[in-house]
Amino acid sequence: MTGIAIEGLTKRFRERTAVDDLHLSIGEGELFALLGQNGAGKTTTIRMLCGLCAPTSGDARLNGRSIVRETGAVKEMINVSPQETAVAPKLSVRENLVFMAQLYGASQAQANERADEMLAAFSLADRAQEKTKALSGGMQRRLSIAMALISEPRILFLDEPTLGLDVRARRDLWKLIEGLKGKITIVLTTHYLEEAAALADRIGIMHEGRMRVVGTVEEIERQTGAATLEEAFLQLTDTEEVSA
Ligand SMILES: Nc1ncnc2c1ncn2[C@@H]1O[C@H](COP(=O)(O)OP(=O)(O)OP(=O)(O)O)[C@@H](O)[C@H]1O
């Protein structure tokens, strides 16, 4: 079954077209990585899919629900771990989780229970009482993902989940994300090509608002004639080559 069906999604800011007639189908339970240079249109795409900004034209269906006509239903089934880690720095780790669960309608008892589950699942239990600002960057990103999962979304958007993390923290997060594979639909944006290759079922490379290629690493290499994903990426995002 299709988790996300994008049909002609377009976003213009004045004369700049940030996302240009995007068509894409992502399977339910698939982990899809969206790659592209700064300004390629990844975040704008995710913001539209989350109902955070309205498309100029086109539509997308998330588990059958339109982001244009059923924005409320879409927001109920998704969650986002945004680029800027969305944790409240003065609240404790546990308070952040409880607060988020309650925001999504859980009772105090349910929120406490869910928070304990997430603390255990994300190896944050021994830091539960600490203020979030005392955590390392990697732990904050982990908490941010735990907070996004506490509402039990069917679709999760991870915007550059490992940005700025050291090698070990990145690997730890990869393990965690791998553990989610197949359970929920995940759209991940990243600038780390090895991250996309390690985690994603399929990869899409955007450039100047357009989707240039979609496929597995092998399919992308075959389609572009490149020896590596990096070579394919550089080829597809070379402005002179693309516009020539
Ligand atoms: N609110 C806005 N107003 C005007 N232009 C915008 C707005 N948001 C995004 N843009 C422009 O749209 C284009 C796509 O931006 P977007 O943030 O989607 O790219 P991105 O691929 O996520 O980049 P990055 O990797 O840097 O996060 C850019 O040219 C950007 O300047």
UniProtKB/TrEMBL annotation:
PROSITE patterns found in the cross-reference section: ABC_TRANSPORTER_1 (PS00211), ABC_TRANSPORTER_2 (PS50893)
Keywords attached to this entry: ATP-binding, Nucleotide-binding, Transport
Keyword Hydrolase: no
Signal peptide per UniProt: none
Domain ABC transporter: 4-233
GO MF term list: ATP binding; ATP hydrolysis activity
Domain of life: Bacteria
InterPro entries for the chain: AAA+_ATPase, ABC_transporter-like_ATP-bd, ABC_transporter-like_CS, ABC_transporter_ATP-binding, P-loop_NTPase
Keyword presence, ATP-binding: yes
Family classification: Belongs to the ABC transporter superfamily.
UniProt-listed PANTHER family: ABC TRANSPORTER ATP-BINDING PROTEIN, ABC TRANSPORTER ATP-BINDING PROTEIN NATA
Name of the molecule in the record: ABC transporter ATP-binding protein
Native source species: Zongyangia hominis
